[in-house]
Amino acid sequence: MIKQLQNLPRRIYGIDFSGAKYAGKKIWIARGTVESRKLRIEDCSQASNFLGTGNERDQCLEALCGFIASEKDCAFGLDFPFGLPKQMVEKNNWEDFVRRFPENYPNLKKFRSICKIYRKPELKRTTDIETKTPFSPYNLRVYYQTYYGIRDILFPLVSADKARVLPMQSLEVGKTIIIEICPASTLKKLWYPEKPPSYKHNTDIHREARAQIIDKLNKTNIISIPDSVGTKALKDASGDALDSIIAAYSTFCAYRNNFKVKYNENYSLEGYVYE
Fold this sequence. Notes:
Structural class: alpha/beta
Order of helices and strands: EHEEHHEHHHHHEEHHEHHHE
Distance between the termini: 18 Å
Oligomer: single chain
CATH class of the domain at 11-82 and 150-259: Alpha Beta
Shape: globular
CATH architecture of the domain at 11-82 and 150-259: 2-Layer Sandwich
Number of strands: 8
Radius of gyration: 17 Å
Number of helices: 13
CATH topology of the domain at 11-82 and 150-259: Nucleotidyltransferase, domain 5
Strand content: 5-15%
Helix content: 40-55%
């Protein structure tokens, strides 16, 4: 069980992650500050601009990992799977799984080849089923994110004890908080019982959908998205900018609940998606 901290972070980051070759263009980072129990979004930018780095994946992810490690009094929400289904994990706990990840999966090809053994049908984690994430952690559309997210972000941070990844690890004063989120799951929860609008395309209909989502978030009265940031999200037809804002919102919702989760033994091995 996660113990409660008296002083929760004042800065919240939502990161729309990517394992693409030019990740600096695909990763978007939203930054917000907690003010009177409300999250005020201050910025939303591509990683290459936010971090001042190149677009190449290795350079960008190294800079992102370093940034997360250097930030204090912060919570980060990232949208890649933090683990694999328990049937695929030989370790007894999540920390061991992460620490041995580069050794067990020395390259993306090796990771993909092992995952293919479990492709019919593809397995999902307990949290994927509960939060209705769109894909298995090793689905063809996701496995790049899973591999590079665990190897290049979680592995160095956990190995150096530079952050606390919840709920698999406990909260610790002075340590950066990292949680897994999924914008698609968050939108399903916000729109329930209806289906959220499709917003990832360059048409007037999809732009209007992005505007509708921004309006929906603002009307929750727990997040404030200024016009300058909202305009960036409206213009980005890929939806990645908006996803980073949704990630920040999801992280703040977890913050408001002191990052508590209901107990399930599978979370301690597979990971957990905060909505």
